[in-house]
Every structure is written in structure tokens, then in C-alpha cells.
Amino acid sequence: MANYSVLLIAALIVISVPVLTLFIITPLIRASRPGKVKLEPYECGIAPTSTAFDHRFSVRYFLIAVLFIVFDVETVFLFPWAIRFKQLGWFGAAEMAVFLAILLVGYFYAWRRKVLSWV
Amino acid sequence: MIPTHYFLILSAILFTIGVVGVLTRKNGITIFMSIELMVNAVNLTFLAYARQFHQVHGLIFVFFIMAIAAAEAAVGLAIFITLFHHRDTIDVDEANLMHW
Amino acid sequence: MTWGDTIYLLPEIVISIGACLLLIAPVMRRGGGVVRASGAPSGGGARTAKWTMLAILVLTAVAVIASSGLVADVAQTKTFASMFALDSFAIFFKLLFIATMAMLVLLSDDYLAASRYSAWEYYSLLSFALCGMMFMVSGVHLAAIYIGLELLSLSSYILAGYFKNELKSTEAAMKYFVLGTVSSAILLYGISLIYGVTGTLNLMRIADAMSTLVTNDALMFGIMLLGAGLCFKIAAAPFHVWTPDVYEGAPTPITAFLSTASKSAAFAIFARIFYVGMHHFRLDWQVVLAIIAALSMIIGNLAAITQDNIKRMLAYSSIGHAGYVLLGIISVSEMGLYGVLVYSVVYVFATLGIWATVLMLSKHEYAGEQVSDFEGLHRRAPLWAFAMIIFLLSLGGIPPTAGFIGKYFLFYAAVGAGFGWLAIVAVLMSAVSMFFYFRIVMAMYLRDGDGQAEVVSSGGLKLVAAICLVVTLLFGILPGPLVEQAKISGGWVAKRVAANNAQR
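Output (C-alpha cells, whole complex):
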């Protein structure tokens, strides 16, 4: 149990740093002069033109999202292999190579069909 | 250790919420989220049983279900985007071109 | 699990590589990657794609035949941790799928060349669907079956919406997708409950575990949910609501695909799961499936009478046929299993013949789909009209066509299993089905008016119709070889059924 007290102390330190800086020390020492421009939502330094619901996003956003979902989740199969890397040996490595090759076919297809480029 | 049936009850509730969502919602994406809820309820059942049996089969199946659910999400989003392109809505009740 | 196991997967490996090649071949060329919003008809490319696809199918068939030499005592198979069985049952269906797919390629050819859509991606998706079907009929593990089923389903969703500029097609894809994923989730919940009760996902071990159990709520619930999911895939009532809309909206060759290959694959896994895995509790599920079968036959055949669109009519008719095949599954006997095998072949060939005729009439994307388009066909295309009659008679189960043999097995099996009332419903509904099949015959022969749709037959369509006609008549007059093959291919599944029936 004593070993875990180190973790507890570490956790307290980790939590206290942002709490102190964000909510306690900074408000005490900073100047507070809110203005109209300062309170506006941040959008890459350009003045916002409308709310997020007023206009549509390009369909490219959704295509990227669709690709992301697939390629992101497929990495789940890499974890079991990585954990049992030695026991699975060359057969496991070959299987993973096949798996990644199939993913690469999909990636290559998307790339050549210009899905990834922002036209 | 938390008894297995607690998880099963939770997953049954989640599955039911998913089914109700599919039946009552009209927005395509919301329906799809409800379906995902059903699938994840199934994942929870598999995990609960795999834990009870100390088996790896159920865990492996969950990996496959997750991967397939992602592929389903991709296909579904693509279909909904195409549908939106056609009629500016993904309300499934509006999809009434074909009748009995 | 070793290197040696991969040889059993050879057909699946061949078709997967083929599918990937078809996918990336068109984008390999310089400038091939440019997305054309509304490109010109891709006629030349479509022809190349067709021959590539046919070559891949031939290679796959060779691989299946080569791998059939490996079929040994499959009940002891340990391939891929006992997930994958290369038995005669699987070989039978794999060859059926490849033959169906080859004919579908011939059916799709002109249709695709006339459209604005890429043939390469189309054939690639068909190949992936074929890979899924071949994988799932070999699966003896619920996870393997599920993965194969999903590969088939995901490809089918995209194919149903392949004409993405047609609202009808997109709508069909959306309905198929939503209802299909819900049914998959229900199927999965059933599998998870069965896993929870039996502690395994392997069909043989599930059967062993079940034989020591008494009826229990979670298990019954699991079996029912699994059955409901599968009933969706074979389009049995009351899980059939997607069928008419999807069949109508999907491109016609895809409707042909959904009503033949995809459906017979679902029959195959339905039979395998319930015969091998669930036979111990058959008294509990037989009754439920019997009601589903009766509902399918009644709803399918009665609703088909009022349809004017031929794709919708065939959709309802296919719901009825799902009901007939369920008779074979319900009876849990060798006869029933042979019936499922024979009927799958018979149904696939008769249905493909009808689709060939429909495609012969449709010049544009959704033309030639009304029953009125068939009016006066016997004057414009007498041979086609005659072939159509044979196909319709086969679907109705009238001798001397092959449909009679298939129905004979199924009805006989149902009576043998004590479901006489169901066989009576089936016979009555077969009679009803002749009404709406006869409507098409009447339109072709007795109506004076000429249908609007033009007759545009090509070599590919004629070849498909000829093959279907020969098969339908040959197996109707000489059913011996088909029945013998079904008995061989029923193989160890039938042996297991016989052994279990003897135990009782």
C-alpha cells in the first residue's frame, strides 16, 4: 500500500499545478480589461462571420472523417499482435503484413482518387 | 468482483435504448447512433461473459465487432451524404419514393 | 494455426487479391485518379473490367476445385483454430456462388456500359461480396460466419446504392443499410447470449454444450434473436419489409445478385447454424420458424398478386421462396438438408433466367420494369417469351421443371417432420403464386398491345438465359445427378443430423 502513496502525491502535484496557475495565481496577478474583440470566439485570427449552424461544411470534411474512422479503428488489431509479438513469431508478422497491405490498398485507392487532396 | 449479471442488465438496458432510438428517431445519423449503441451493448455482453469464463474468445470477437462497426459507420455516412446531396435532408421519413 | 492452414483458404485468397486488383487497376493509370463528376460512358473500360472479373472468377473456381482435394474427415477439422471448415457442403455452395457471379457479370455488362458508373469498382465490390459469401459458408464458428456475413452485407449496401445519382438507388441503399445494421446488431446479441450460456462460439462445441443443458430463458432468447437476424438476411416475413423497396430501387443486376447469390448464402449459413449448432433445442425453435415460414409464404405470395412493377413482384415472390426453404430448415432431417441444397440451385438458376429477361427489356436505367412492358413479347422475341414461361413454371414448382424437384424435397421433408399443416400452406401458396406468374405469361401472350420497352438482347444475356434454361429443364427431367450431388454435399452435416435423430 505504501508504494501507492507515491502515486497519490504525484497525482496531487499534477492536479495542483493547473489549478493553481489557471484559477488562483493568474487571476490575482493579471490585468483584467475585457473588450468586445477579446470576448469573441477565436477563429484563426479572422473575425467570425456567422455561427457554426448557419452554413454547411464542405463534403470533404465528411470524406476525411469517413476515412479516419476506418483507418483509426483498424489499428485495434495491431495491439494484440504487439503484445504477443514473440509468441506469434513469423506467422504473426506475415499475417500483419497481409493486413497492412490490405489497408494500404485502400489508402492507395483513396489517395489516387484524390480524396485526400483539398480541391 | 462485480457480478456478471450487473453487466448483463446494463447491456440489456443499453440495447433496449438503442432499439427504441431506432424506432422513434427520424434523423438518419441519430438512428445510426442508436444502432451503434445496440452494437456496443452487445460488446459489453461479450466482455462480461469473457471475464466470467476467463476466456479470450469473447474479447477477440469484440475486436472484430468494433472494426466491423467502424466499416459500417463509414459506409453508412457515405450513404447518408449521398442522400443529403439529393434532397437536403437525412430525415428517413422523407425517403418515400417507393410505396407498397 | 500454422502456415499449412492457409492452403485451405486458397479460393478466398485468390478472390481477395482479385478484388483488390479490380479496385486499384483503374487508378493506376496516369490521370486515372481524377474523379469525374459526370463522366462519359466508360464503355471500353467496362469491357476490360468484365474480362478481368471473369478471369478472376475462373481462377477462383480452379482454386475451389483444387482445394476440394483437401476435403477429408471435416468434422475433425482444426483449420484456423476450428473456425473454418472446408467440407463438401461449403464446396457445393462456393461453386454455386462462383457460377452465379459469373452469370451476374454477363448480366451486368451492357447495363453498366450504358450507365455512367465505373465498372471496375462495381466488379470489385461484387468480388468482395463473393469473398464474404465463400468465407461464411465455410465458417463453423459464429465469429467467422459473422465476419463473412458482414463483408457480404457491407458490399451489398454500397452496391444497392451504386447508381448514386439516382435518388431511388440511394434510398434503397439507405433503407437496406439501416435495417441491415439493426438486424446485424440483433443477430450479434443472439450470438452473445448463446456464447454466455454455452461458453463457446464454435458450432460443434455449442452443440455439445447444449446437449447437456435444459431449456433456459437466456438460451431461448439467444436462439430467437439469432434466428431473427438470419430471417432478415433471407428476407422472411415479418423481417421482410426492406425487400420490396431495396429490390425496386437497386440497379437491376444488383437486385438479381441480392435475390440469388446473397440469398442462397444466407440459406446455407442458416442451415449450417441450425442443423449443426442448435439441433438439440429443435422442438423449441421449430414451431417459431414454422410460423415465420407460414407468414413468409402467405404474405409474400399474396402481396405479389397486386404488384405492377416486376422487380417488386419478384421481391415478394422471393419472400415466399424464403418461406419454402425454411420448410427444409425446420424439418431438421437429411431430406430437409438435401431440399435446401437442391432448392438453392434450382431457385438461383430460374431467378437468374428471369432477371436476364428483365434486363433484356430494360434499355435505360429503370425501364422495362412494369408488367405491361412484357405485353406482346411473344411476337417480338418468341424464344425469350418461351424461356420466361419455363423459368416462371420452375419458380411455381410445376413439373417437368427443376422447381418441382426442389419443392418436392422440401414439402416431403416438412411432412416427414410432422409439419403437415405447413406443407398444406406451402402447396396452397404455390398455387397462389401461379396467379401472378401467369399475369406475366398473359401479358406476353394474350395482350395485344406492344410494351414500350425495346428488346435489346446481347450475347451475354442470351448465354445466361440459355444456361438457366438448360439447367432448369435438365434437372427437371433428370434430377438424379443434382440429387446425388446434394446427398454427397450434405455430407457430414447430414450425418450429424441422422446421428442426433437416432439418439432421440
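Chain B touches chain A through 13 residues (CB under 8 Å).
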